Amino acid sequence: MAIMNSNIDNIVIGSGVAGLAIAIRRRMKSETVLVLEAEPNTGGKLNEKKWEGYRWDTGPSLFTLPETLKDIFDVAGKNIEDYISYNRLPIVTRYYYEDGTIINAYADVNDFANEIEAKTCDKAEAVIKYLNQAKDKFDMTRPVFIERTLHSWKTYASNAALRAYPKAWKLDAFRTLHRMNTLSFKDERTIQLFDRYATYNGSNPYTAPATLSLISHLEHQLGAFYPKGGIRQIIKALHQLALDIGVEFVNNTKVVEILTQKQTGKLIAAGIKTENGDIVTAKKVYSNVDVWSTYHKLLPDSVKYPKYLEKVKLGTSALIFYWAMENLNSDLDLHNVLFSKNYLAEFHALHTTLSLNTDPTVYIYISSKIEKADAPKGSENWFVMINMPSDLNYTDEIIAQYRTIILNKIRNTIKLEVQKHIAHEELIDPKYLSEHTGSHLGSLYGNASNGPVAAFLRHPNYSSQVQSLYFCGGTVHPGGGIPLCLLSAKIADDMS
Question: How many whole angstroms from its chain centre is CA 89?
Fold first, then answer.
């Protein structure tokens, strides 16, 4: 057993987007920072795959709130344009329905509203009203619930909170997202489109609060963006920035224990132990690992996972196929959604019965539509995903069933036989997510937001049992997705 370095101020476990962000923030406080990563590459879920001229982003494919990324570079005193560039998308998502309807979700609010009116029986005015309500929710929650900890009285006594209290009813937390959407629109296709926003954090629109409608504001009023070179460029930019300012990285090194010691009767994080038996001592430890896995796999048995979190259901996992589509030039866009015919049945299978769903919604992301280098000329790189219950017991037979279901869904919805174009295939399933990203049972976002107080039931960005231990990433406050993970790092930094 060896000590790798005993003069480290901060250890970061995991190099996901939040891990990189907290490492940069701590380094800019003139402190030493060591990032330990179990995998060969940095990035966590934001990784990439390559095969004979094809490239795929492996994880999150939608980029919103770019100012949360720019803030990291501003903190470091660097110009973000020296590391990464991105452009706003004219169409956020193209939605396909089995009745033949195709709705382009234009980034421009008026264009999107007019598209809804042209393709459904809902009026443009209803869409604009809905998005303006979503903006109000976002403006209220951002300074109170998104950018600050929910676990300090100072947050609730802040000027932003005091201004928000009289308008708290506008958050619509005690009505479900689906209920709000059915009262806002008449057409089932419009309702289904806006119900989909619950899936952005692995939740169920039939039980998740209507507060989640604020996500639509991010896409249509603040914009969705695409980085030049793909989503993976976000990780590459942050990693390079971290290296430039002196953050140390050790990859292929699995942390197996967060070391603790008692001082004046209090438990304090003192460092980590690796799989090889090496010990690294530090003043502070930041876990960018799934919070459930941190408690159950890295901390002593005396440190208990909060009981209230044990009762909260996990959000969904995913099955993702990466297809090299040879000799195919489809009419699909960058982001595409092929809706199931029965959304209620789909979410019942995902969140209640946890069973095989024979008609899932299929998401297809084709970065080569913008990034031509991501596939050979005349071909496309398909990232094909369906939501699945968080579970590690999916057999090869079940995965094969889902593959057939997906192929049938594509055939029925966009009338395309894609099997003959698949030159190469790789996949990621819940078991892979669990083993390679530490996600508990493969859940992409940790606990689901199914309930009016769900936002308050995410684990805080610090430990109440172990001093000098902090948490960041998609399974703690404020939640999953690139911008929220970046903000989780800011909150953890502020609290330490």
Answer: 19
For residues 114 and 119, give the distance between their C-alpha atoms in angstroms, rounded to a whole number.
Answer: 9
Fold of the domain spanning 3-47+62-78+230-306+459-495? FAD/NAD(P)-binding domain (3.50.50)
Of 431, 450, 426, 455, the residue nearest 442 (C-alpha): 431
In this prediction the pTM is 0.94
Total Cβ atoms within 10 A of residue 189: 18
> Is the model's pLDDT at 459 over the cut of 80?
yes
- Distance CA(10)–CA(33), nearest Å, equals 5
> How confident is the model over 112-137, as pLDDT tens digits?
999 999 999 999 999 999 999 999 98
| 12 closest CA partner among 29, 25, 28 | 25
Query: With contact defined as beta carbons under 8 Å apart, do 215 and 133 qualify?
Result: no
Dist. CA 234–CA 242, nearest whole Å: 12
**Cβ neighbours for 99, distance < 8 A, ≥ 6 positions apart:** none
Which has the closest alpha carbon to 173: 222, 129, 143, 140?
A: 140
- The CATH architecture that domain 113-222 belongs to is Orthogonal Bundle (1.10)
Tokens 């000027």 found at: 159
Residue 40: the pLDDT is: 94
**Per the structure block, which two tokens stand in for 297?**
């796999």
- Which single residue is written with the structure tokens 């006594």? 157
